[in-house]
Amino acid sequence: MKKKMIVLIAFIYIASMLFCGDGVGKKLVEEKFPHLTYSDKECDDSKKRRSCVLWRMRIQQEVFSHTRSLLRWKMKMQVSGIICCRIPTSWHLLMKLKKKGELAELEEQQNVKMPQVDMSFDNLVKNYYQVDKTTYIGADELCEEFLLGRDMSIEKSGDGPDILIYHTHSQEGYSDSLDTSETETVVGVGDRLESLLREKYGYNVLHHKGQYDVNDRDHAYSNSLPEITEIIEKNPSIKVVIDLHRDGVAETTRLAATIDGKPMAQIMFFNGLCRTAARGPINSLPNEYLGDNLAFSFQLQLMANEYYPGLARRIYLKGYRYNMHLCPKSLLVEVGAQTNTKEEAYNAMEPLADILDKVLK
Questions:
Q1: CB 56 within 8 A of CB 36
Q2: Does the reported pTM lie above 0.70?
Q3: Cystine design at 295: which of 17, 89, 150, 360 (Cβ 3.0–4.6 Å)?
Q4: What is the C-alpha to C-alpha distance for residues 295 and 319, in angstroms, rounded to an integer?
């Protein structure tokens, strides 16, 4: 459907350009497809730029593939800048993009592919997962069809939130946290992730800051369930739910890495399997989305390993549900531990936001 739409827009543009001139072609596309084109003023909005850039790239490539010779002599438009949200109308602009290296960057973003790895059960358990002794998993679930056969991409909504971020354990802080206020804990880390996903990648994000572990950490998951369920029901546009945590480790353990010259806390994806080794399936904790949960975290793990080696620890599998039944693309992420600094945790949100975007698009 998208391919047909791209080709249609390209040919509408070419036809109007041939018969009426470049300016009319551009104006027609802007009038008929306003969600793909924006005025100069709106081009300063990074969210709108990011949301239309891939469409613009595809249409641009379709136009140029059919009209290269024509556009060489039909350059009447005055180009005012290198990156704009209007559809380019000259081969000259394409050459400028290539010279700047920005076209290659956009093409790379458009063609992100899942890394190829050994999908044997033994390799997955050894290199990608840490299975808690209280639970179990078999080769029927840790296999290529189960983990890579599910499409995790989403369509961004126009109005409502695409992504919900919340914190079952909002009081978790870091080695240099002064108190349990939002900016000193994992909630502040969630603010950083929200900002990146919204401003850099164009997602609508709802960051819920409810507190469920104050004076009662043991019942935090049951405390949070009613309110998180209500939020999702009231916002049907939500497609991704992220429960952001901070791990707890021995005081001598440091979960840190240096990536792109920045100190970062390592992250860990966590899945609940709703079964224990002692009792088998927990019938009171069903999760119809378990397969999707596992596929989502695994695909994120592959992207992390490919683009940010050393960032992600092995995915941790444990026996209970952890409220991951609320959405197919539910994600529980541990960002560092109490031995990490706030700066390390904040820095880790940059690659996390990027790998989320790579999988979701």
A1: yes
A2: yes
A3: 150
A4: 17
